[in-house]
Amino acid sequence: MMTFETGIFLSRIPFVKIGSGPNPIVVFNGGQAFVRRPTPARTERDAKRIARLLPSDRQIYVMGYDAAPPAGYSVDMIVQDMATILRDEIGPSTVMGISFGGFVATRLAADHPDLVKDLIVMVSAHRFSPEGQRSIERQIECAWQGDFHGLLNEFGLAFRRPWLNWLLRLRLWQEWDKLHEKMSDPATIVRGLHAVADENVGKDPSWLQRIQARTLIIGGTHDPFFDVNAMKEAAHLIPWTQLKLFDGETHMLPIERARDVAKVVKAFLW
């Protein structure tokens, strides 16, 4: 039976611990971790979805982000926090970064190779695609204005399968009057988005060559946020990398093809 334990690292970084066992896997979640206010139900639902992608006999930590990020919040600041947590609390681990979390995972592996045994980059890379960068800039603008409907509409066609996009839009319509209760405050969202929208992120990718961990990059060929060129560039620069692309899939690959993704991950970690 899958067990869940919630807690806080460094008095400000929330986490969910799943299961037990040796060789922990530390997961850096996507941007939804700071866009929506965390609730116990949402936290457990996200953790279950992530756990389906990973071996059931490994201890898993799903990391959140600072709920009140300071001014000047950056990927480097997040990486320093995560490095402290791994060094002092968890120990060297397999690290997986999903979407936004891929920025953190790759930088952590490059700057602190002693803490990352294996690296999995899920629907992510070291930089956005041009379309993805434009989307992040629109999200920042919407967040500044408190336009949560516009912010979430950026994900309105995120799924490959039309019926899932329809369900997403239906859910957004149902939550229309309560979005302000469910979303984080605009400053938190903007600071999180600015951390990865900085023009220097991905500008010089040579640092990827410092990654020593075995690396798996998984993505979809129709991902609007991280395109094939970005994933291939990362795979070329990281010394030991396996690249797995799912033809026609989008940014929601881990949800729409969870079983197939789990098989690839399991084979990599075997």
Automatic annotation (TrEMBL):
<feature type="domain" description="AB hydrolase-1">
    <location>
        <begin position="66"/>
        <end position="257"/>
    </location>
</feature>
<dbReference type="InterPro" id="IPR000073">
    <property type="entry name" value="AB_hydrolase_1"/>
</dbReference>
<dbReference type="InterPro" id="IPR050266">
    <property type="entry name" value="AB_hydrolase_sf"/>
</dbReference>
<protein>
    <recommendedName>
        <fullName>AB hydrolase-1 domain-containing protein</fullName>
    </recommendedName>
</protein>
<dbReference type="InterPro" id="IPR029058">
    <property type="entry name" value="AB_hydrolase_fold"/>
</dbReference>
<dbReference type="Pfam" id="PF00561">
    <property type="entry name" value="Abhydrolase_1"/>
</dbReference>
